[in-house]
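Chapter summary example.
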Amino acid sequence: MMPSSEHARSYYRATANAMPERPALAADLHADVCVIGGGFTGVNTAIELAQRGLSVILLEARRIGWGASGRNGGQLIRGIGHDVSGFAKYIGEEGVGYLERAGIDSVALVGERIREHGIDCDLRWGFCELANTAAQFAAFTREQDNLAKLGYAPETCLVGPQDMAQVVGSTAYAGGLVDMGSGHLHPLNLVMGEARVAEALGVRIFEHSPVLELIHGDTVRVRCAGGTVRASHLVLACNAHLDELEPRLSGKVLPAGSYIIATEPLSEAVARQLIPQNLALCDQKIGLDYYRLSADRRLLFGGACHYSGRDPADIAAYMQPKMLKVFPQLANTAIEFQWGGKIGITANRFPQVGRLKQYPNVFYAQGYSGHGLNVTHWCARLLAEGIHAGQSRGLDLFSRVPHMTFPGGKLLRSPLLALGMLWLRLRGLVNN
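The structure predicted for these 432 residues follows.
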């Protein structure tokens, strides 16, 4: 059964700004670049290309922001992925330094886009990284020192276990690291606002236009039911929803389920007790908990990471116990929204960005592994640089990191990984 073309019944959909419905492709058209995918990667690549003077057609199978871009946790957090120092053997120490800076500059890029275009998306600065153990809290000291060496300008502050009530009304944590250069926002309103920016720059956007066939060549032909787009370059920006459109890439990203619940609006007093400084927060577990307050004082609580390909039958019943472990004081608080979505996970938890060796006019970016809000925007700029100028230092660095294909093929890769994660949990090697 095909997923619905409408947005998930999320808090974001219920509080979205204008959501104009765009037509499906219904003619044969030509552009310098065809972008497939109407999430953060696709929309921002279109913006970056149009700003460089290229004509762009963007095709979205459903609606702009339908996937993870419009239903994620809304946490705008520095970083490209997990510890990037492990990639030094591929990109050198200078390359590692670039990635560390990119993890910071990508957040600034999102903030600049919001400010420059006046996008109304409830942006609030402030984030707290939560330690589940004393060892994790000790590691925050090294993290703070490294940020200082990088010249990180925003304020950071270590919060010891005895002072955690300053940032979160929970006894579950061994400390925290507050970062005022990260924050949170309404992601669906952001991507919708960015789509309007793209259109103002001349980008032609078509919704309800799933791609049926790619015909490669010096001019790429992208066939949909209602017409074909011919373009000199193609950008694949489908991430967890690439499916088998490009088999060379689809096996390198695993769609994993992540889920969010939203409470009823909380009183000012309760909201202040839960998150006194209105920060975004997340912990250090593999299937991490992440949460924040919405603009109307709801607690948005997300987490889990399902590899099985099957979503819980009742997301609220699945997520509420996790929320109550952190905030038992919310036992009598109603859950008014529940939703989930797919994020693209890579084996090394590092995004895949580059061009196809077989078809050098085909570019792609995918597999953000939970860091999608900022990294999508950064990768969009790299893709545009590579297409417009023919080269990009950042694109070259990302392309040097190798990525394995998940075993098992289309039908078995998710069940095999789910079994593997279960085995590690049973052995106590990863946290739930």
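To summarize the output: DSSP finds eleven helices and 17 strands in the chain.
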